[in-house]
Amino acid sequence: MLAGKRVLLIIGGGIAAYKSLDLIRRLREGRASVRCVLTPAAKQFVTPLSVGTLSHERVYDDLFDLTAEHEIGHIRLARECDLVLVAPATADLLAKMALGLANDLASTVLLATDRPIFVAPAMNHVMWGNAATQENVAKLAARGVAILGPDAGELAEGEIGLGRMREPAALVAAIAQHLAAYAPLAGKRALVTSGPTYEPIDPVRYIANRSSGKQGHAIAAALASLGAETTLVSGPTRLADPPGCRVVHIETAQEMLAASLAALPADIAVCAAAVADWRPAHAAAAKLKKDGSAPQALALAENPDILATLAQNVARPRLVVGFAAETDDLLAHAAAKRVRKGCDWIVANDVSPETGTFGGDANTVHILDAAGTETWAPMSKKDVAARLAARIAKALA
Question: H or E element: which one contains 132?
């Protein structure tokens, strides 16, 4: 369940911080990526060098880092992850979280995140049993923070009691178990198409469109985060491969169709790619020259209809979702497309230049199915993806 997950590990300033090094290794063995934040006190127990070497990532420790904060680094850290793990979670860190303090990088990130938070408490058994600590832990649990431990045993000061940080292997297993409860698409296979297609005119020219692939890539990531085994078939984009997905890179519509059919059988197919409807009937083997004569006519051939092919396939996915990118009569064209293609849902969006949808980070969509039309308020493409993935999970439950 950790494969492809982006873990933000916040290391608190307690002797148990030495276990964080093994924790990083075990998280990476589970194929999670790990980015780390060190509190000032944590650097008294482990070094940024050792943490960075094991995580293969930059280590963050300064709220006022000029380079990171130029890009609002604490917000990016808080959002560019799938979960936040605090280990060890000291009494001080737990108190800051309960009170909503934000006076260093770790506490600011914890206040700014909207991702699931897991804490692994570690402290002296008397500190753990103190009424203040127990009240703080109760507040955090009531807010949905997962409390992992502590365990009983010998403590650093030689005393015995409840206060040991849970062992790294047990923490990884507990997080995986928690995530499994939030993986409604576990055991399901999903296919997502994304981006434009490039249809060659000659070796250096092609027909394409303005699709960035941001919406399709976000949908693939959202489905994977809900546990689906996700294959993303992507046309040429400037985007990084989304975490947790198998990605097949293609250029043409014919290549996209072949890759999509190869990904069957699947439970879900979301065709978010902006596939070129036409391609040059005969691509020139050498670069066409402008020699002063009359422009050469470009003969076009119709590209395969990937959405219709999947919707009408013998191995048809249980749920087939198409996209309708229109510049006029949006809902009418989308409704007709849903019937014509034979898909279950159509996600309709206006891609007129003034909307900024193509290439932008926001989208306004309408979901058309057999029951009617559902219009969503404008939101980021990542939020559209998360909401669509949740709707898909509910439909397949």
Answer: helix 131-142
Buried b (16+ CB within 10 A) or exposed e, 87-116: bbbbbbbbbbbbeeebebbbbbbbeebeeb
Instruction: Pick out the chain residues at pLDDT < 50.
Output: none
- Count of helices and strands (H, E) across the chain: 14, 22
Report the C-alpha gap between 372 and 345 in whole angstroms: 10
pLDDT score recorded for residue 358: 67
Say if residues 239 and 220 touch (Cβ distance below 8 Å): no
Q: How far apart are CA 176 and CA 172, in angstroms?
A: 6
CATH superfamily for 6-181 is Flavin prenyltransferase-like (3.40.50.1950)
CATH number of 189-396: 3.40.50.10300
Q: Residue 36 CA to chain centroid, in angstroms?
A: 18
Domain boundaries, the chain: 6-181, 189-396
Can you give the pTM of this predicted structure?
0.65
- Whose tokens are 């130029």? That residue is 70
Tell me what pLDDT residue 56 has.
Answer: 95
| Separation CA 355–CA 166 (nearest Å) | 50
Of 187, 190, 206, 210, the residue nearest 198 (C-alpha):
206
Annotated active-site residue 209? The verdict is yes
Paired tokens of 34: 């790990």
Q: Which of 130, 209, 313, 349 is catalytic?
A: 209
